[in-house]
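Good morning C.,

I know you're traveling, so I'll keep this short. The sequence:
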Amino acid sequence: LAVGVAPAVGSRLLRRPPHTGEIDMTITPLKGLRITPRLAYTGAFRDFMYDNGGLPQGYGSSPGGMIASLAVSYDVTPRATIYMNAWNVLGSRFEPVNGYQTPGPSAIMGVRVRL
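The tokens, ready to paste straight into the viewer:
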């Protein structure tokens, strides 16, 4: 198929994986401590492919991938909570769109204060 040509009726849409899923759970081992791991899965999907030089290669299939994240928070006082959120903790190289790789592991930490 050439760029700009509409897909045939009934064919899979680009960048719309037929299989996705996400699972998370919150663990509270101590009063005020919450640990929430999350796994997000995206199955293989059709996409317009580009080579490593950015040149178009036509339509193809992009492999699926999984991304793991983690959130931890602890209530220091009834009005103050420390927290940490981490994304892509396992360093997945999944490309949700061909040519645009998922950012590497990252995290943010902070304090929430309720006035």
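Safe travels,
E.
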